[in-house]
Structure formats: structure tokens, C-alpha cells
Amino acid sequence: MQKKLFMSDALDIRKIRPKAVSQVAVVKEESPGFWAFLNKDISLGGNKLPDRIKENFYLELGSLLEAGVDIRTALELSRDEQKKKKTRAVFDNVLSKVVKGATLSAALKSTGRFTPYEFFSVQIGEETGKLVQVLKEMAVYFNKKIKQRRQVMGAITYPVLVLTVAFGAVSFMLTYVVPMFADTFRRFGSDLPAITQFVIAASAFIKKYVGLLFLFLFGVLCICLWQRKNEWFRKLASALLMRMPVVGALVQKIYLARFCNTLALLVASRIPIVQAIRLTRQMITFYPIETSLQKIEDKVIGGMPLNKALSEFSIYPAKMVSMVRVGEEVNQLESFFARLADQYSNEVEYQTALLSKFLEPFIIVVLGVVVGVILIAMYLPLFKLGQSF
Predict the structure, then answer these.
(1) Is residue 214 domain-resident?
(2) Nearest C-alpha neighbor of 288 from the set 264, 263, 256
(3) Which whole number is the average pLDDT over 19-33?
(4) Highest-scoring range by mean pLDDT, 27-31, 146-150, 331-335
(5) pLDDT of residue 299
(6) Same domain, 190 and 312
(7) How many domains would you assign to the chain?
(8) Are residues 186 and 77 in the same domain?
(9) Residue 2 located in a structural domain
(10) Distance set, CA 187 to CA 173, 180, 280 (Å)
């Protein structure tokens, strides 16, 4: 029988954490620097806590409770580890509510910084006596979510940097270098090759309208940020994203992995399927899945099997629908959803690595061709003038 620890007892968290390492993949702390900055959670005005903080919170809280630490001490330790004042205030609020007699799920809900999926899962854990297990499952969920985001960020970071440098280099050549050659060619008054005339015309166009171009791009960005929560914009943006080659399929699998992982955790907690669908809809913000889940919920309430309801929407692949059908027939939905989540996560990992390896040489080749065309266009008239003497 484990001995409980109280506030007066000394506690070394480092001795407790290893018990959960075998079940939950702990995210290592990155060394400071530019690449570590790119991996940080980015929040654009949302009031939810970053996923990294949630993962650490659920993992540590579950480990402490499993080791026999009382809930008050565990929450105090989690609060004391927070460095930001706002985040520390959130956990302090949770602690004060629990000390006053509220349940952990009610305390999480009262802060407004946790999703219904989280505090409802914690409530199920409290009612069934499986709170430690639920907390560990929540840590695994956020760990997988963070891992997926970092895979995508890692795949596009280097190509975006190279593309930005390439765009700047080409813009500099067209704005400053090409006009210098153009002035020289005008002094000679000779006919220029077609490729040289095209490059000079492109340079003049860019130099004249570059300000309007940046203003237009800035305006589009502002409109996207302003309208990003409106239904028409979300529908249009998701439709365009899904039609993009390679990227569309990758985004679909990312959200399908989250969808399957969320349902796997909820169904495993013995939450009714209708309520699990409703909670999943609140977690998945991708428009095609979010809107389909509302209709799927109504169909399941009407008596339709889940696999048949999923089959009516193209966002769910036929293979996934077949797996769900088998899971319903053998009454092991949580197991099949977990398998689907792992499968889609592995496919995302493979495709992001493949996308990164493809984009890097492709951008370099395109950059080389553009710079080569500009150089040939500028030096070709000089070669012709040299031959005329």
C-alpha cells in the first residue's frame, strides 16, 4: 500500500516521472535558438492554453497521483512550474476551486481555458475511478498532436526560407540589376533579343507595381485574419486547400488522425457514441469534418449506424468506413479507431518527410532556372555586340 505525501513532505518530481515514461512519450526540452523558436506553440488571439503546457500538465498530474500524491499538492507543484504569470494564474484558479471542494473537471471548466473534450474526459475519469488513466491518455493525445504539427512545420520551414531568399534575390536583380543593363543597351541603340526584351519588360512592370503588389498581399492577409471564423471563408478556404495536390491529402490525413484519436479516447472511456461525436466536433475545427459531424450526430440519433453515416461524406475514405463497420460489428470501436489514428499518423509522418525532400531540390532547380534566364538575357546582347566589332 502506497504512502500518501502531503505538503509537509519533501518531494522530488524527477523520481516520479520515470514511471510514466514507458507509456507516454515525453517531449524533450529544446535548446534555445532559432529552430527551437519555430517549434513553439503559436497562439493567434485564442484563449486556450498551448498544447505543450497541457501535455506536461496532464502527464505530470497523472504521474503524481499515481505515485500517491494528494490532488492539492499535485496541483501546487504543477502551478509552481509555470513561468508565465497568465498561465500560473490559470492553474492557481484551478487549485483554489479544488481546495474549496470542487471537482477537478469542474475547476478546469470554470477557467474557460480548457476544451469540453478535456474536462468531460476528466469528469468520466473521476466518476469511474480511472482519473490517472484518463490523464495519461490526455497527455498521449496532446503529445501526438504536437508531434504532427512539428512534422508539418519541419517539412515546410526549410523550403519556405529558401523560397523567401530566392524571391528576394530575384526581386533585387529585376529591380536594380536589370535596369542598369537596360540603360546600357539603350545607349547602343541596337535591337535586343526577345528574351532580353521580355526580362526588361518584366523588370519595368515589377518596379512600377511592386508597391501595389505588397499592398494587395497585405490586404488579402488582413481579410483572411478578419474573416477566418466566418462560415463562408472557412468553407472556401478548406475547399481550396483540399483541391491542392499533395497538400490537400496531407491535411485530410492530419485531421482524420485527430478525429480517430479523439473518438478512440472517448469511446474507450465508455462515453455514448452520440456524445462522443458531439465532443469530437468541438475539438476538430477543420470545416468539412466539423460540419459533417453535426449531420452524422443527427443520423446516429435517428438509428443509423456510424459507418453508414460516415460513408455519406467524401472526407471519410472508404477504407476508414469499412474499418468502422467492422469495429461496430465486433463491438470494439475504440480499438479500430486507435488503429486508424496510428495508421494516419504514420502516413502523415512519411508524407511530410517525402514532401520536404521533394520541395528542397525543386525550389533550388526553379531558382537556378530563373537566375540563369536573367543572366543569359542580360549577357546575350553583350556577346552580340562583341561579335559585331
Answers:
(1) yes
(2) 256
(3) 34
(4) 331-335
(5) 93
(6) yes
(7) 2
(8) no
(9) no
(10) 21, 11, 70
In tens, the pLDDT along 297-332 reads: 999 999 999 999 999 999 999 999 999 999 999 988
Query: Which residues span the domain enclosing 65?
Result: 13-114
Looking at every residue in the chain, the average pLDDT score rounds to: 79
CATH number at residue 383: 1.20.81.30
> Which of 61-75, 136-150, 348-362 is most confident?
61-75
Encode pLDDT of 105-114 as tens digits: 899 989 888 8
What is the mean predicted confidence (pLDDT) over 47-52? 80
The amino acid at residue 331 is: N
Answer left, alpha or beta for residue 33, where phi above 0 means left and psi between -120 and 50 means alpha: left
**pLDDT for 382:** 74
Whether residue 268 sits in one domain with residue 387: yes
373 shares its domain with 333:
yes
Report the predicted TM-score, pTM, of the whole model to 2 decimal places.
0.66
pLDDT of 29 reads 34
Four-CA torsion 69, 70, 76, 77, nearest 10 degrees = 10
Please tell me whether residues 213 and 108 are part of one structural domain: no
